[in-house]
Design a protein that fits this description.
The protein is mainly beta. It contains three helices and 15 strands. It has one domain: SOS response associated peptidase-like (hypothetical protein yedk fold). Pfam families: SRAP.
């Protein structure tokens, strides 16, 4: 799974936003430690224009008196094997409301017995475009519209198994054909995304063990992870 995000205001994130032709880049929400239920920026396409929008990183929301709150059902990630299951939380968004989540890196947590290990993964000389889903919610009393989102997770990647054994985030290749198809809200031909539902690391990553996400103090030296399936 992908349980935390690192979004740095640097040239790599700025370049990716330029390449994606995002019209309101100044609204990007940066942060060293973004965790589930936090507000993050997603990239969505509206009337042919790509825009950043603030979204709650938790796809399923519940209505409360004045607004919304995260559902009791965990939904910051959406599993690849649920995307084509009718009535699942991700079924309709996968067909109608796909988005991107831009980040510099991500974090994973692994429990082994009584011990818990935390690792940060930073894309080397690049920024990441995660495949995501979003939903818009309108409050029946106030009329407020709130957006929520999740990041799609694939099966575990062999190179990540020493650090996390449950899943790996969907990292999209940064080419126009894939991105155009992914962000097009009229495109419901999801069969074309079958190859994206396989584990793939499309960047070189620096891997750093840390003491805990909130402090992110390094433990030992960072190591360079170079995936053998490197594609862009």
């Amino acid at each position: 799974m992908c349980g935390r995000l690192n979004i740095i205001d640097d040239m790599f994130v700025q370049t990716l936003m330029d390449d994606l032709r995002i019209s309101n880049q100044q609204e990007m929400l940066f942060g060293r430690f973004k965790m589930p239920t936090n507000d993050i920026s997603i990239v969505r396409e509206i009337d042919g224009e790509r825009r950043l929008q603030t979204a709650t990183w938790w796809l399923l929301l519940e209505t409360c008196y004045e607004g919304f709150k995260p559902s009791r059902y965990t939904s910051f990630n959406t599993r690849f094997d649920k995307l084509n299951t009718p009535n699942s939380a991700g079924f309709q968004p996968f067909r109608e409301s796909r988005c991107l989540v831009i980040a510099s890196g991500f974090g994973e947590t692994e429990k082994r017995g009584k011990d818990t290990y935390y690792h940060d993964f930073i894309a080397e000389n690049s920024a990441i475009a995660f495949g995501g889903l979003f939903r818009d919610w309108q409050h029946p009393k106030t009329g407020e519209v709130t957006t929520s989102c999740s990041i799609i997770t694939n099966p575990p990647h062999p190179d990540l198994l020493p650090y996390h054994s449950k899943a790996s985030p969907m990292i999209l290749p940064q080419n126009d054909e894939v991105i155009d198809a992914w962000l097009n809200p009229a495109n419901q031909q999801v069969e074309m995304f079958d190859d994206l539902l396989k584990p793939a690391l499309r960047h070189d990553f620096m891997v750093q063990q840390i003491n805990k996400p909130s402090q992110h103090q390094p433990i030992g030296q960072a190591t360079r992870l170079i995936p053998n399936d490197y594609l862009v």
